[in-house]
Structures are given as structure tokens and as C-alpha cells.
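can u pls check wat happens w/ iron/sulfur cluster
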Amino acid sequence: MNNNENFRRFGIVLNDHVVRTPVAISSMAGVVDAGYVLARKAHIGAAFIGGYSVDEKTMEASREIADQGRSEFLFDDPITELTSQLERMEGSDVALGINLRGSSAGSFQAIAEEFGSQVIYEIDAHCRQEPMVKAECGEYLLHHPGRLIEAVKALKSEEVTVSVKIRAGVHADDRKLAVDLWRAGADVLHIDLMDLGYQKVRQIRNESPLFIIANNSMNSFERMKDMLSHGADMVSLARKSDERTLSGLDAAISRYAEEHGWYNSPKQLCRGGDLRALTFCCMPVKNCPLIPTLQKVGMTREEYIALKQNFVRDTPLEGGKQTCFGSLSWCCKDTSPCMFRDLTIRQLSLSSREYMRLKRELAGKLMERLFDDRKRQEAG
Ligand SMILES: Cc1cc2nc3c(=O)[nH]c(=O)nc-3n(C[C@H](O)[C@H](O)[C@H](O)COP(=O)(O)O)c2cc1C
Ligand code: SF4
Ligand code: SF4
């Protein structure tokens, strides 16, 4: 498949790179390097190599961890090592990230000064090995979020794409953390969900427009679908990142995307969907979860109606006289059976896939508006 076809299928762009599938490899120190990724490149869209310790304090921590018998990447000079890793990845279509352990904002920035926009810079705020935490890195950053924000800002000053790898449930309030990281300029939130499940993904989706990568035991299509339908943009695997598992997930999500047109469509709001589900919601005429949701996001019923009407004007979703509310803009997800919607779609010569693509566009506009409003309110 070429870039155009990949974009048509998933519509994912990361670091100016069309991503071929929403399956990624998550870093494992001492294991995941360019060779590991290239051996699996046919089944993935992105990969985070590393973690690489990039300053004296974290390199010393790596040596200590290695002495305790754990695998680590050890080298004398991180720039030389990273240069050689990136050279090996040249020409591959995998969106590449480097997972970095640094003990200060300046250490991260120095790496971005060297490599510019060719990779995604992932701050490791995840590692809980004691020597790393003592070096003021990894999980230390979740307990000292001001330091994490400084690191994000330092990287963003180099105009590069920034991912933050966190473990959910460590910071006192993951929602607030996500909002703070978004405001600081982070682009991607890579979340090890531990056993917190899709509810955590939904919480974070509803608070920020960050690109969300869900991680931890994403080893079956069922689990992957749960994350995608509650707001994740991608899933990642570390321990089970073998070819068989990766290719199974890639094949299953590709089939799903071809059939349904929107690979990570949310559940309907009344079935527990995230805010993107407003794209499938009815006119606000009955007592249902839409009403408290609108209150929560600070939107009146009239504003919600006007917004949807404006966004679908002159698009095929504007039509649909036979549907419940006179326009497809208020119609349900393709998986909710409805002959009135399907008849309308057929009359408009739309495929069900195309209908879902248009619903995705509408959801994108609604989310952009909600988060723009939030930014304005915070600024004011
Ligand atoms: C041996 C090993 C090394 C790891 N090293 C790193 C690392 O350097 N940086 C990082 O952010 N996460 C690291 N992780 C965490 C994984 O990326 C991932 O978040 C975790 O294993 C849960 O995902 P999984 O269930 O797919 O394995 C490591 C995990 C393992 C098992
Ligand atoms: S508006 Fe319709 S789709 Fe949305 S929550 Fe209410 S009943 Fe469900
Ligand atoms: S016409 Fe069908 S799809 Fe549209 S809102 Fe009514 S029940 Fe839902």
C-alpha cells in the first residue's frame, strides 16, 4: 500500500509521516533497537526504540541497572549510538520515536538539537528502576511534574514532535497531567495503562486533543478495539511485540477499517463512548446522557444544535429527510441497525464506509471546537 492508500484507510499522520497501521512497538531498554524494529516493520506503523540514557547521571544509572542483571543499552556516547541507529532506519516507512532518559530538560534538548525533526522525541517518565528515579528521571518526573513540563518545553523550543511515556495512576490526577502536557506543547501521550483499562483512555480523551497511544497487554484485537473505541489513536506492544501478534493486530484492524471506514470510531455516548461520540448523538430532545455531557463541556443545547448544523452544511450529512431528526448529522453509528438511515445513505449514493468517514470529519470539527473553547477560557 502506498502513502495515499494508508492515509485513506487510517488517516493517521505522526511527525509529518503517514502511518500505515495504528500498531506500534513500545521501547524495552537493551532490546528494542533499529534491528528489532526492522525485523517487524511489515506489521507496524510506529516504533519507539530505546530507552537510551543520554547524560552522565542517567548513563551511570543504566550501568547500575545492568550490573543488577537487567538489560540496558550501554555506550560511551549517546549521539554516536543514536546516529548509527537512525542511519539503520533510513528508508523505512515506520514513524520512528526515540525513548530517552535524561536528568534535566537540557539533556533532552541537546538530543533534539542534534537530530532535528527526523524522529519523535519520547520522554521516559515511566521507568521505576531505583537508580533511574534517583537520577531524577523516569517515574521521578511524574512525582515532579514541573520538571516534566520543563523537559517538554525545552524539546518544543526545537520545534520537534514530543511524546511523553507515562504509567497511569502514578501522578495524583492523570487528567490534569494530560491537560498540563497538552498546554506545554506535547503532541503524543503514550500511556502504560497498567490494569486501569479503557476508562482511563476515555478520561484523557475527554480532557485533551493529544494523540493517545494505549499500552500494556494490547495483545488481542478485542483489547485493542476497546482502547480505540474509547479514544486511543494507536496501541503499542513491548513484551508481546513478536511478529505473529503484531501481524494479527495489523490484519484485524486493517480489515475493520476497510469495512467500517473509521478505525477508531467511538461507541455511542449512551453506551459509554467518549466525547467524539457527539457526532452520533440525536437532537437534544430527551433525557439521556447527552444533556449532562453538554452541561459538562459548557455548551447549551442551542449551541450544540447550531454547531452540528453548521459543520454539515453543504455536505452529504446535511440530507436525510426520512431520518428521525431530518438530517444524517443526528444519525447513529453504522453498527446500530436502521433502515431509514441506510435508505438515505443509498439514495445519496454513499457507502456505509463513506458515511462513517464523514462522521469522523464531523467529530474532528466538534472536538477541535471544544478544545479551542477550553483553551480560550483558560487563556481568558
Ligand atoms: C525489559 C523491558 C524494558 C523496558 N524498558 C523501557 C524503557 O526503556 N522505556 C520505557 O518507556 N518503557 C520501557 N518498558 C515498558 C514497556 O515499553 C511497556 O510500557 C510495558 O512493558 C507494558 O507494555 P506491554 O504489556 O506491551 O509489555 C520496558 C519494559 C520491559 C519489559
Ligand atoms: S442523544 Fe441519542 S445517541 Fe446521544 S446519548 Fe442521547 S440517546 Fe444516546
Ligand atoms: S434515523 Fe435511524 S440512525 Fe438516524 S437517528 Fe433515527 S434511529 Fe438513529
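The two ends are 46 Å apart (CA to CA).
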